[in-house]
Automatic annotation (TrEMBL):
PROSITE patterns: PNP_UDP_1. NCBIfam families: deoD, PRK05819.1. InterPro entries: DeoD-type (IPR004402), Nucleoside_phosphorylase_CS (IPR018016), Nucleoside_phosphorylase_d (IPR000845), Nucleoside_phosphorylase_sf (IPR035994). This is Purine-nucleoside phosphorylase. Keywords: Glycosyltransferase, Transferase.
Length: 241
């Protein structure tokens, strides 16, 4: 049963997986949400946990696993979880850089679609510019839970998933901003593509950790931890809907 990148047994994953980029964050989320969290995989240090989470008095099975950084890494784990472990939905919980004017550090973005400069989805359908869109049921559940976010504003709309973190073509950010793109991150477009490939569900819920245009102060490492709660509440609502 183990796959090249996941050492779990056949029934070790829950149908819903929360997926932060950082495996250590996966560990912290798992132990914060699930008193019975148990480690199910640790290949290459990409930790995955499964347990039971209680939401509004109802217990739900849940897994939490890191994706690593970037679309190739996230694609490997999402593919193996959907194809080999029967996972039905993956909700990315991560950070993003703000792009849109109305978006501020500390806000939460529900990524309803994801533009990309990656070739990963371009290679899927010959002659087609693939549209990477989130699952509507998951996005609606996250949006419907937005009153649970007590700090910052919740936005829903397109993000961009880039391959480069540090380098951008001149004019790219301005163009994205002019077309209503809310933020930039590095995994959602590929995750949505894999979900389409397997007929499963995916969503990205992102905390804005810095802003590419407006120069507002970046979040400190500590703030990234404490201000993560809003995005996690929305992701949980999607995971358990
Ligand atoms: N790009 C730029 N800024 C960011 C990102 C990113 O992928 N994630 C968080 N801040």
């Amino acid at each position: 049963m183990p796959t090249p990148h996941i050492s779990a047994g056949p029934d070790d994953f829950a149908p819903a997986v929360l997926m932060p980029g950082d495996p250590r964050r996966a560990e912290r989320i798992a132990h914060a949400l699930m008193p019975d969290a148990r480690l199910v995989t640790d290949v290459r240090g990409m930790l995955g946990f499964t347990g039971t989470v209680e939401v509004d008095g109802v217990a739900h099975p849940l897994s939490v696993m890191g994706s690593g950084m970037g679309q190739p890494s996230a694609t490997i784990y999402a593919t193996e979880l959907f194809r080999e472990y029967g996972v039905q939905r993956i909700i990315r919980v991560g950070t993003c850089g703000g792009i849109a004017e109305g978006v501020q550090v500390g806000d939460v973005i529900i990524g309803t679609g994801a533009h990309t400069d990656s070739s990963m989805n371009q290679a899927r359908v010959p002659g087609i510019n693939f549209s990477a869109v989130a699952d509507l049921e998951l996005a609606a559940a996250a949006w419907g839970a937005r009153e649970k976010v007590t700090e910052g504003t919740v936005h829903a709309g397109p993000v961009v998933s880039r391959d480069h973190f540090y380098w951008a073509v001149p004019g790219m950010v301005d163009g994205l901003r002019a077309h209503g793109t809310l933020g930039v991150e590095m995994e959602a477009a590929a995750l949505y593509g894999v979900a389409n490939e397997f007929g499963r569900q995916a969503l990205a819920v992102l905390t804005v950790s810095d802003h590419l245009v407006d120069g507002s102060a970046d979040m400190s490492a500590q703030e990234r931890e404490t201000r993560f709660g809003g995005a996690l509440a929305l992701a949980l609502a999607a995971a358990t809907c």
